[in-house]
Amino acid sequence: MKPRIVLKVGSSNISNGEMIDENKLEAIAKLICELRTHYDILLVSSGAVASGYTRLKIDKSLLSNKQALASIGQPLLMQTYRTTFQHYGIEVAQILVTKNNFDSRTQTKCAKDCIDTLLAHQILPIINENDSTALTEFVGDNDRLSAYVAHYFDAQLLVILSDIDGYFDKNPTLDSHAKILPRVTHIQPQELEAPHTPNAKFATGGIVTKLMAAHFLLERQKSMFLTNGNKLDVLRALLIEGKQTSGTLFGTLPTLPCIIDSK
Ligand code: ADP
Fold first, then answer.
1. What backbone torsions phi and psi does residue 227 show, to the nearest 5 degrees?
2. 198 in ligand 1 pocket by Cβ < 6 Å?
3. What per-residue confidence (pLDDT) applies to 263?
4. Is residue 199 in contact with ligand 1, taking CB distance under 6 Å?
5. Is 0.85 topped by the overall pTM?
6. What region holds the Aspartate/glutamate/uridylate kinase domain (predicted)?
7. Does ligand 1 have an atom closer than 6 angstroms to the CB of 164?
């Protein structure tokens, strides 16, 4: 069995602020195609609300509107993924989950059995939150959801693609002297309480939800890599060549089969 990696893409990684950017999706699909020779990949993708907004302009700050936009956008998003991955001969499947599903052992096992079956047949699972039945706490927070996905579906590593190179000692959009932290093994409680600071129009969590995801995994001896979705070479170097050229690694790098192969 290949090691499992969960790859979470944010709205900013697949949209141009207004609509889904097919070139960005294409670049991600190309990398996933290469990674699949060494790993089983599970994709967690945001972007449903942004996609829905291209069809219906309603106030996204209202929860019920956001849920409605997600339900309009989710099939559009999947349609774009299906077409893009078809170029690489990859069949895709949609799995919608809520945090509640992970509170039940039976439901978690049921979803994991489904994921295991898809991966055994080389189908790429594309996971998103089922926004219309989700409780408010998690709506739009795919960072924490993807940490649950990584842990409960037995992945060795969660990769979060963002619009930022990694985790910095200060907010880099406000302070040009901020320095990237290449390795983090412990997150202080106060770092989890900072105000949410999403950067882009469709971003929701900001750095705090990424730190919460990392904290959840670190407590369970799992790892997370935060890197820039516009610099996919960084992720490629880490997972194919075993070299960390940028990004923040929370925890330790799990043993990578491709690096052992090439030794
Ligand atoms: P995404 O949409 O990719 O999930 P977000 O916009 O939600 O990303 O969160 C990333 C943003 O968090 C960064 O662009 C940056 O503006 C902000 N941020 C605040 N503090 C930090 C920090 N210490 N390190 C990195 N990013 C930070």
1. -150, 170
2. yes
3. 47
4. yes
5. yes
6. 4-227
7. yes
